[in-house]
Amino acid sequence: MSTPNDPNSSSPPPSTDASGGFGYGAPQAAPRRQPVAPQSAGAGTPYGAPYGGARSLSSMSVSGADGRHPGYPNSTPGTTGLARGIVIGGMVIAALVVGVVAVNTIREVAFSPQAVAREYLNAIASGDLERADEMIEPDGKGDPGATLVTSDVLKSAENRISDVRVSRVSSGGYATVSYTLDGRTTSATLRLEREGTQAVFFDKWVIADSLAGTIAISARSSNTVSVNGVDVDLPARTYGSIRLIAYPGVYNLTIPDTSKWVVADKAKLTIGRSGRSYQSADLAVTPTAALEKEVESQVRAHLDDCAASTDARPRGCPFRVSAYGDVQGLGWKIDSYPDLSLQSDRGIRFSGESGSATATYQQRSGASSAYTTRVDTDTFSLYGDVRISGDTVRVTFS
């Protein structure tokens, strides 16, 4: 079998025109069938093989010069939908993990029971009692008449708590806390309760029991006490006593109305150390020599006024005589002034013992009788109170 342009073929070559090309309109040779290689018997195309024979992957590649598919310029060869799903899923999981970590971090920093307990202790340490009271109002330890100390009192304290720590919180809401007070480390238990939620994701924890204690002060000789340099008035109905609700701290107490007349006691009380939730102090004043002299002067002046009376029983005076019948010309004389002493356990009081006064007068038993001179002596005692207001001292008799 010959092929076109075969030199061994006997067929004449096709005609050409003068230009050397095929002649336009020249008769064309009938098309010839291309030879097909014979196939051996029983050797068909394997099932699943590409039509037309096996081809290498390299012969099927239609990738561009940069390795990307020409129809999908942003795709990577070999990346399937499953792979892309795995990548996207991993990104979502990573975002969820970051979100969970963020929520847990915020919970531990701002909303955990440890954070609430720490905020409460820090408020006390800084003297911010308004914030501490917002978190838990002290219950007064069962005393409805107790008065809460002010921030000014605690801020003026010689020592407040510091170095606050919250070590752990039990499942029941009991927090183990510690702080330094007056140079010593003290541990305490603070109870918290879960009260709903806040900010959608977080439990709301509140302080259930206050760390405040009670200071009981007795100062019957004054209407005011000084607590850490801040004056606190004593209610009249308490007769010189007061109970103060006080947070952990050191409290210096005294009586502010000191002057040349009295010297006041001082006391130092600590609340919140080693379980000390109740402390008391009995403040008294000691009269000075100047006060004793002033009281003696006023008592003698009073007795002199009594001695000027012409009555057998002078009104408001400690001495008297029994003069009956017709009496005239009665006069008194102070023989001896009483010995005075001052007491300051319940206010400032005075007492005088062994005073003596003599009355001399004329007496007769009837109109026809003559007057006779009588001399009667009375030994007396007297008592009273001393009131001090600034530089003024006032003595009253009882």
From TrEMBL:
Tree of life domain: Bacteria
Segments for region (Disordered): 1-49
Ranges of biased composition (kind: Low complexity): 26-49
Alphabetically ordered keywords of this record: Membrane, Transmembrane, Transmembrane helix
Transmembrane stretches, start-end: 82-103
Protein name (record): Uncharacterized protein
Organism: Schumannella luteola
